[in-house]
């Protein structure tokens, strides 16, 4: 491994053609298709850098072919590595063979755009299930969503089957016993010991990226807010930031501060509820009920402040559309003080319950190297010694004015994720109070003119689950031509399956709850 | 252990009085839309701005807002130059028929009264009586997420918390459709879940009820025209009660469950 990081990621690829039509976007390079996998592996290994998102584009009408965009973030800069894929032969060298973090992105681009990753270690359908005929690619520009697509026999899902004495295969889901989102998990177990776990997701795929195409940004924002319930504020801000980056618009300080407040309120109700859910994962019902009461108090605050328990309908392109008056500010400050006091008691209850802590120690370990290789983000990464937080890596909204310590653990087990979540919640109480105490005056929105065509923009926030990335490209007339949503759950779901083998089957719900990922903002 | 008991006693009772008592949503909450026909000059701004295509209006078409699709974002209120649209605090919006969710200009069709006729302060007692009479003291719900954005699902979970505590009303959530009286469906029914939804419904013994909860389940919400969704639960199953909202508040869901109980005559 190279020890000296490159001053500039683009410098690692002397054969690449630099171009940058967008004044505000990160550096972009075009590489020959044959060298795409090599280029991406070089950037990751020698940068060092992390794969942030990957986008497939149907540019056949404009440029005669398809386009792939791999976005990386290094220690001090970002780089977009791009390649053109010929329409006549839509095949590309799989980057996933050397960069495991690219696996799901490449399977998705095959399903939705028909671009085949040659050499992919696991080239199975990801997004479209057996009810979708092969050869029909919904994100291609010539696919009309009104087309009646018949449910013809696409190949059935394939799972690895383990054989041996006493090995039992346990399929679970998509419908589960509790009130939870749908996903399928297939265990291979001997007695209660899990040998292997595969996950099959995208049951809640709603085709939302296609819906955005051809719409103006103000029409897409309500879609962004409804990708997910519990990451609604984070998605709204990420989307608006991507639009504002293309427009070259800075939002007013009051809007930046309010966006930050809403995102920290979102982090708080999620973290407090998730800590309670972890108790449910161990059968510790007193903790579970206490946690759910704290979450309820915060969601009631959300509703008083914004009309929505999930902080929807607060953002606008160019700023925010919901203000807080002096009464609301006081209500928020007092409620947060009260909930923080109750939270402190709640924490001492949990830390003082040995049976609960014992279930978490050593369970569901995510090794640091696996977290790095798979591009894990958020709490999953920080609990395994990977200190990454979009509030610091990609400062946005009001975070530049605030001190955000990065909570971190190295154990990588359920307990580590529990402790990181706990520390982050304590920080969020302080951040929210700081914002409330120092809310700047002024307007709520900046005017945003019609977007220039053929420009790419990226918006990044730190949702309760981790880095949330919206990539978009505009078309003529200021419309959105392509919208790629990469929520924190996207890189993290593959990570979950790595942590389960070696644990007991009943530990799976606990491990799952320690990550607390979303299905709906993964599936879109 | 003692510490737990002490804290529990100190916390006291946190459970809401709803449905026995009336409760009020906070002023910021957007509930039932109210349309002032006299103020409207039919410029169509509301139709254009609605992300769920919930408003129909125009030449020869009387104004109507479909609460089944409505996501209560308030963009129509902002867009209207004459303030013809506003939102009340009424959250008891559930209805048995899809057409009862239309908010119209003429007052006979739109339920512009402050509270719908069937609400009264004995509702809670009536509800428990009905549950006992028909289902011998319990209503068991099987939850099915048919591709939702998880907001309404989280609110169903919330009904089991100490504040709403639906178990005090004789309602519980069960693990198997075989044990269920009512199928609580969220989401627009995605292609990838259509078969699972059908099988779950078929596994439920009669008598069985179906509730569509949330904008996507009631009418497809903001997902109109998607290649991957059916546009609402009623495209796949017979729906007994629609609970609109994005998502519906916990108390609005309780109200909807009450209505579902009532349809078992």
Overall shape of chain A: globular
Pick out the low-confidence regions of chain B: 107-121
Strand content of chain A: 15-25%
The average pLDDT of chain A is 92
Read across the widest sheet of chain B, the strand sequence of neighbours is 7-6-8-9-10
Describe the global form of chain B: globular
Brief characterization of the structure:
With 524 residues, chain A is an alpha+beta fold. Chain A is built from 17 helices and 15 strands. In chain A, the strands form five sheets. A five-stranded mixed β-sheet of chain A has the order 1-2-5-4-3. A three-stranded antiparallel β-sheet of chain A has the order 8-9-10.
Keywords:
heterodimer; A: 524 residues; alpha+beta; 5-stranded mixed sheet; 3-stranded antiparallel sheet; globular; disordered N terminus; B: 265 residues; alpha/beta; 26% helix; 16% strand
Model description:
With 524 residues, chain A is of the alpha+beta class. Chain A is built from 17 helices and 15 strands. Chain A has helices spanning 36-46, 60-63, 103-113, 208-212, 217-225, 232-247, 253-281, 285-306, 326-351, 354-360, 368-373, 378-382, 390-393, 414-437, 489-499, 507-515, 520-523; strands at residues 17-19, 27-30, 49-59, 65-74, 78-86, 91-93, 116-118, 167-172, 184-190, 193-200, 315-316, 319-320, 456-463, 466-474, 480-486. In chain A, helix 5 (217-225) runs antiparallel to helix 6 (232-247), helix 7 runs antiparallel to helix 8 and helix 14 (414-437) packs parallel to helix 16 (507-515). Chain A is globular and about 65 Å long. Chain B is globular. The relative contact order of chain B is 0.17. In chain B, the strands form 3 sheets. In chain B, strands 7-6-8-9-10 form a 5-stranded parallel sheet, sandwiched between helices. Chain B has helices spanning 2-11, 45-49, 75-79, 123-135, 151-158, 194-203, 215-219, 250-262, and strands at 33-35, 55-58, 61-66, 85-87, 102-104, 139-145, 171-173, 182-186, 209-213, 241-243. Helix content of chain B is 26%, strand content 16%. Chain B is an alpha/beta fold and 265 residues long. Chain B is built from 8 helices and 10 strands. The model of chain B is unreliable at 107-121 (pLDDT under 50). At the A-B interface, helix 4, helix 5 and helix 8 of A face helix 1, strand 6, helix 5 and helix 6 of B.
């Amino acid at each position: 491994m190279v020890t000296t990081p490159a001053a500039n990621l683009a410098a690692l690829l002397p054969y690449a053609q630099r171009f940058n039509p967008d004044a505000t976007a990160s550096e972009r390079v075009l590489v020959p298709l044959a060298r795409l996998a090599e280029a991406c592996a070089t950037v990751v290994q020698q940068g060092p850098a992390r794969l942030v998102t990957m986008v497939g584009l149907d540019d056949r009408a404009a440029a005669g072919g398809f386009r792939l965009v791999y976005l990386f973030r290094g220690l001090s800069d970002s780089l977009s590595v791009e390649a053109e894929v010929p329409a006549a032969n839509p095949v590309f060298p799989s980057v996933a063979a050397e960069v495991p973090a690219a696996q799901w992105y490449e399977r998705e681009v095959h399903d939705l755009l028909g671009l085949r990753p040659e050499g992919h270690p696991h080239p199975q359908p990801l997004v479209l299930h057996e009810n979708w005929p092969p050869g029909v690619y919904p994100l291609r520009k010539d696919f009309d969503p009104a087309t009646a697509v018949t449910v013809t026999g696409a190949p059935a899902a394939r799972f690895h089957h383990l054989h041996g004495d006493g090995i039992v295969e346990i399929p679970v889901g998509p419908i589960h016993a509790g009130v939870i989102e749908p996903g399928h998990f297939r265990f291979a177990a001997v007695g209660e010991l899990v040998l292997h776990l595969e996950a099959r997701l995208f049951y809640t795929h709603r085709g939302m990226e296609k819906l955005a195409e051809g719409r103006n940004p103000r029409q897409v924002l309500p879609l962004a807010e409804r990708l997910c319930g519990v990451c609604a504020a984070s998605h709204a801000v990420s989307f608006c930031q991507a639009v504002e980056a293309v427009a070259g618009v800075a939002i007013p300080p009051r809007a930046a501060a309010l966006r930050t407040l809403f995102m920290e309120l979102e982090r708080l109700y999620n973290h407090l509820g998730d800590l309670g859910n972890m108790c449910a994962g161990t059968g510790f019902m007193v903790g579970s009920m206490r946690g759910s009461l704290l979450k309820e108090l915060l969601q009631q605050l959300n509703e008083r402040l914004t009309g929505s328990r999930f902080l929807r309908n607060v953002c606008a392109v160019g700023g925010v559309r919901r203000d807080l008056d002096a009464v609301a500010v006081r209500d928020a400050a007092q409620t947060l003080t009260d909930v923080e006091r109750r939270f402190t008691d709640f924490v001492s209850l949990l830390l003082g319950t040995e049976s609960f802590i014992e279930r978490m120690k050593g369970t569901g370990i995510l090794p640091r190297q696996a977290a790095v290789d798979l591009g894990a983000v958020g709490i999953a990464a920080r609990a395994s010694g990977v200190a990454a937080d979009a509030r610091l890596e990609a400062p946005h909204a009001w975070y530049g004015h605030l001190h955000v310590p990065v909570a971190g653990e190295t154990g990588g087990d359920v307990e580590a994720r529990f402790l990181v979540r706990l520390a982050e919640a304590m920080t969020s109480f302080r951040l929210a109070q700081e914002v409330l105490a120092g809310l700047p005056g002024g307007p709520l929105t900046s005017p945003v003119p019609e977007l220039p065509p053929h420009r790419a923009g990226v918006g990044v926030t730190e949702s309760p689950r981790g880095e949330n990335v919206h990539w978009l490209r505009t078309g003529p007339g200021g419309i959105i031509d392509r919208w790629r949503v990469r929520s924190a759950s996207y890189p993290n779901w593959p990570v979950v399956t790595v942590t389960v083998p070696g644990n007991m089957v009943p530990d799976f719900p606990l491990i799952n709850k320690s990550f607390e990922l979303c299905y709906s903002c993964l599936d879109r | 252990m003692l510490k737990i008991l002490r804290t529990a006693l100190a916390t006291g009772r946190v459970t809401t009085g709803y449905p026995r008592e009336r409760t009020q949503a906070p002023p910021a909450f957007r509930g039932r839309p109210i349309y002032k026909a006299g103020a409207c000059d039919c410029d169509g701004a509301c139709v254009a701005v609605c992300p769920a295509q919930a408003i129909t209006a125009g030449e020869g078409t009387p104004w109507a807002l479909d609460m089944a699709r409505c996501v209560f974002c308030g963009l129509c209120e902002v867009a209207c130059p004459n303030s013809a649209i506003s939102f009340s605090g009424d959250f008891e919006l559930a209805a048995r028929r899809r057409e009862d969710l239309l908010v119209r200009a003429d007052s006979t069709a739109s339920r512009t009264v402050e509270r719908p006729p069937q609400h009264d302060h004995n509702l809670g007692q009536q509800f428990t009586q009905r549950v006992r009479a028909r289902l011998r003291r319990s209503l068991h719900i099987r939850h099915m997420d048919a591709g939702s954005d998880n907001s309404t699902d989280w609110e169903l979970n919330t009904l089991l918390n100490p504040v709403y505590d639906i178990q005090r009303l004789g309602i519980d959530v069960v693990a198997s459709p075989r044990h269920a009286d009512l199928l609580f469906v969220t989401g627009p029914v995605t292609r990838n879940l259509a078969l699972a939804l059908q099988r779950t419904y078929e596994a439920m013994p009669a008598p069985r009820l179906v509730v569509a909860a949330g904008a996507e389940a009631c009418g497809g919400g903001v997902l109109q025209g998607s290649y991957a969704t059916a546009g609402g639960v009623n495209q796949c199953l017979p729906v007994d009660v629609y609970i609109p909202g994005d998502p519906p508040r916990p108390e609005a869901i309780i109200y909807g469950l009450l209505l579902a109980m009532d349809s078992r005559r």
